[in-house]
Structures
1.
Amino acid sequence: MISPFLLAALCLLLSIIYKPFEINPDALLQWNASPPRILLLTAHPDDECFFFAPTILALQRSSLSPEIFSLCLSTGNADGMGERRKGELGRSLDILGVDEDKRWIIEHPQLQDNMTQQWEAEVIAEVVRPFVTEHHITSVLTFDMKGISSHPNHFSLPVGASHLVKSLSSSANTSVPRLFSLTTVSVLPKYTGMSSALFARLTLASQSFSVSEPTVDSLPVFISGIPDYLTTVRAILAHDSQMVWFRYLYMTFSRYMWVNEWVEFKT
Ligand SMILES: [Zn+2]
């Protein structure tokens, strides 16, 4: 039988983490763009929900009403399931709220899903360029140089996107997007699951006592609440070709199911 004390503690925990929590979410957006146009740049179908869901879901609540686009640079064909995975990505993005006309998946001979291959920055820049320019993208969101899981396809992306931003900066008549990367945390905190949502909130709340208002330079942090977490689980389950046993462990223990921290990538 559960003691009243434990039951009360559980209710308190659930009430604390039920609602989403964000610090400076609009720092990812260009304030002078109306609406801001955000491009999520990923390497494989399932990256969008395994790693970026807290941000995708939170940005849709922003008062700046950003338009959110998704560009995935491979079909994830390492096991010959690329065609199937394209459909899974579509269903996942439906659940995460990215419109059908704002999402694309690339099939390129030099951008193949491969655990040992780093993609060339020049190739990434050339492939991404038309999507950025034609849709007037104002911010690009992608992995950092550790790629969360150290997958070389992942950490190729900030290098390629940075190459593109530099190239756009040097050409006149083109607006240049800002580039942000999702912070890779070390192994131990990476698998703290629901408790990561609690500790991240407590840390940010204690900081907000000492700093009255987040400045425009504060790093954006997105912490999912329980409804967002459940939406993320549904999006992951849409990738049914990937649902081996350790994916269930991932959903239970990964910090990225709950917390996303961003830094601007200096090009
Ligand atoms: Zn991936």
2.
Amino acid sequence: MKCQKKSSCTIASSRPLQFLLGLFIASLLIWVSSKNRPTSSNAWIPGVPVRGGSTEGTTTATVSNDRLLDGLLLPDFDEQSCLSRYQSMLYRKASSYALSSYLISKLRTYEQLHKKCGPNTPLFQKSLQQLKSNHSTDQLECNYVLWSPLGGIGNRMLSLVSTFLYALLTNRVMLIQQAADISDLFCEPFPGSTWYIPPDFPIKNLEGYNIHSQNSYGYMVSHNLINDDPNSPPSALPPFVYVHLRYNYAQKDLHTRFFCESDQEVINKINWVLLKSDNYFVPGLFMIPKYEQELERMFPLKETVFHHLGRYLLHPSNSVWGLVMRFHNSYLAKTKERIGIQARIFLWAPISIDELYKQIVACTQQELILPEINPKQSLVPNEATTSAVLVASLHADFYERLKDMYYTHTTTTGEIISVYQPSHEEKQQFEQQLHNQKALAEIWLLSFSDVLVTTAASTFGYVSYSLAGIKPWFLVSSKDQKAPDPPCHRAVTIDVCFHSPPNLNCKTRSKADTGKLVRHVRHCEDFEDGVKLFD
Ligand SMILES: Nc1nc2c(ncn2[C@@H]2O[C@H](COP(=O)(O)OP(=O)(O)O)[C@@H](O)[C@H]2O)c(=O)[nH]1
Ligand SMILES: [Mg+2]
């Protein structure tokens, strides 16, 4: 081999050992990076290079994108009633994360339980009678957890999935309240039954339950109104209990005791649990030794909890799917690569539009997610590839500026970058059906991306990347209204953050850092106070 550069010839000839070692390390690096590259089976479009290191997966096994997601979904539903259930996978990358057969068997068992105990069954009627009594009993076949929506749509999806995992662990049937903030958003997930409580459900005023409620477990424990001895019989316990796990739950009474084993023993004997939360409280369930083994069997890879359960449970209604498909087919279907950017401004981390725009550009260019613009105008080659950027934000500014930048300039790579945004609602609205539907549609469209840039601590972003099975780039929260440097960093896992952990040592009943108590639960990369699951 002829030496092209003097320096390399010198190095190779004068230090053969080091040269060979260097060659070995370089080949190792190439081998490792080629292992991390998406294979044609897990890339969305085979053969298309993916930028920004968007390759995923810690296992070699993948979940194929067949219509049943390798057994995660059942074939039993009428396809027309919920098109997204069997079609989402056609637009999303196949999951790189293996599913455990135990999780699948748990879901099949749960579906049977739900059918047997769901609303309109004799067993449900029997349990309703118990609810009207003044104590619990161990004589019932069916116990329930009733979830009531709270917070933005991202929070609702995270707490719903957390509640479902709690139901799986405790053999409860999960029901939900039919509230304005949830209507015509999701399909029914369980065959031959419904997850909505009937209108004549005896507990009224579910909206009224809050941190002060005297029916809450925290209040009752704090005021010695409940026997918290794990050996006490069900007949000594009330027929239902309210569990308050909203972001503020650790501030008052003993609501955090929900995450202690001995309290779980007590709560498990109560026939009905009413649960309200805007949190992804799954990492809290991993703190409870009683559930450890089950969780290990269901999720050998801890970081896949939301990814798999979200893909199982959450299917946009046909109205939402219509929004998703009309937008996708109009703007995104023909492009080779899709880059999702989700930009959110929080009151607790204020930042100007200008500053956040600069942060987005700095992040996407430094991390080679988007190309730089070419200061000299040059002709666009005929065969130029086109990549699409999907912007999701309440504001139009980021989209307008990005679009303008790539419209008025060519790029250093010669690629054409098209920029799109489905809506800009300006501010969060409540109980507005179309507003909620647009938000869900945008989360879904983001989840079809090859690369994602999301806002740190945004639950909207969390759901999109975890459903996608992509480790996003987090736009780091502002400090003193300025974008930090570096502007973004890569998530370590595809699971999401529990923003308000209990910070309680159950043994000593004293304050403790939840992020330091068990092996798999540590502080989040994007939100210091929170904790998340790590493998
Ligand atoms: N359509 C749309 N709505 C948004 C967007 N960002 C925030 N919203 C609205 O504001 C709410 C924010 O709550 P959430 O989903 O919990 O996201 P988070 O506040 O970023 O954690 C959403 O549910 C939407 O109602 C966006 O990019 N697109
Ligand atoms: Mg939120």
